[in-house]
Amino acid sequence: MNWYKLSQSLFPVFIDISRYQQNMEKYLNTLVEEPISPEDFLHVKQDFFEHLNILINHLSTNNFSNYIAPLNNLKQQLAQNNLNNEEAYELLWEIRKNVNEFFWEKQQQDHYSREISNRAMESRTIVTNVIKSFSQMEQYTNNSYFTLQAKNELLSKLTEETTQNMNNIKNNIISLISKNPLLQKNRFPITVEASEDYNETGSQYNIQSGSNSAAIYVGDPQYSILFTVVLEESGKLTMLGDELESFEEIIEEYGEEASLIKPVYNTLRMLIKNPDIENVPVKTMSVYTARPIKDFKLYESAQNIPTDIFVSTKYDFVEGFAYDNKPRDIWKIRLKNKYLINDESNNPKFIFQTYSPDGEKNIPIDSIQYVQRVE
């Protein structure tokens, strides 16, 4: 046993927020801006004043004389240091909107002549420069810079909230372990690694609150595969990722040692998806499955079948699958519902996966009946 490390803990579940911290700090560092000095602010103020003059002269020659008086009023307020930032902001954006609309109509009327296009570009540049210089000055007067101190305080807050969420995820997993015989015997470390949250557009990190999502690894994270869970407001876990198929590559590369992790991983994954599965009353169900014809002898008169195969309570669905993936043999199986699990987030309610609560490779069945071969 070389590539993984066995744990001596009763419930070997650990949290890891190091990567989250590193990535979040790196991102927050890109947002840090130190306030400019009073001397620099005078230059910013003068820059805004000059851009206002350019804009006034430009508008006076382009049929926008109605904005000259309001802009001169801005200059007066600026000189007296009593500029109303909200009113200034609204005025500048109104000018930008109307200038864009004016030149858009002119371009259409003049069939996008070079002269009109150049005038439109000049106007947009002048207005944009005024807004940029105003925003820079407003930021200084409002003291709204994201300073290094503010960044450190925010990172500390996000780290604290994320740590709390990861501990809640960890406690959820420990609760599942305490109810399952196979997981109670497990000594492979289970790692809860904090993942970065993104904003609604997915374009940047969420910095409003700590992360509530985590990658779950069984065994050494360097060699294991993962699935992702999210801690809901209710305190329950929701699974987002399911990477079961890639386990075969891990087993192929690392051999039987890696295969020992699979039942632990599989059982944990299933219990997170269906935390109340062990409380469901036991009953016998009839399901159908379409298996490769090479496995005929494996299923003929079988008393048990493999785990991790898909079955369905709807014959028509299985028959359709068989025709799409022929040649296949269709079997009817009677078994206890405790050996079936359904992931309703990915599959309809009539599709199940065979599952062993004890992590065995096979599960017992009550009976099996050959239906037909689809070729």
Helix and strand pattern: EHHHHHHHEEEEHHHEHEEHEEEEE
Largest sheet: 5 strands, mixed
| Uncertain spans | 1-8
Q: What is the rounded Rg?
A: 32 Å
How many individual β-strands?
Answer: 13
Widest sheet: strand order? Answer: 1-2-3-4-5
Oligomer: single chain
Name the overall outline: elongated
Termini separation = 45 Å
Question: Helicity, in percent?
Answer: 40-55%
Q: What percent strand?
A: 15-25%
Q: Taking all residues together, what is the mean pLDDT?
A: 81
Structural class: alpha+beta
Domain tally: 3
Number of helices: 12
Topology summary:
Elements (H helix, E strand, L loop, with lengths): L12 E4 L1 H12 L8 H23 L7 H12 L5 H25 L4 H28 L6 H31 L2 H5 L4 E5 L18 E6 L7 E6 L5 E3 L7 H8 L1 H4 L1 H13 L10 E9 L3 H4 L4 E3 L3 E3 L2 H10 L3 E9 L3 E2 L9 E4 L7 E3 L2 E8 L1
Parallel strand pairs: 1-2
Antiparallel strand pairs: 2-3, 3-4, 4-5, 6-9, 7-12, 8-11, 9-13, 10-11
Helix pairs in contact: 1-6, 2-3, 2-5, 4-5
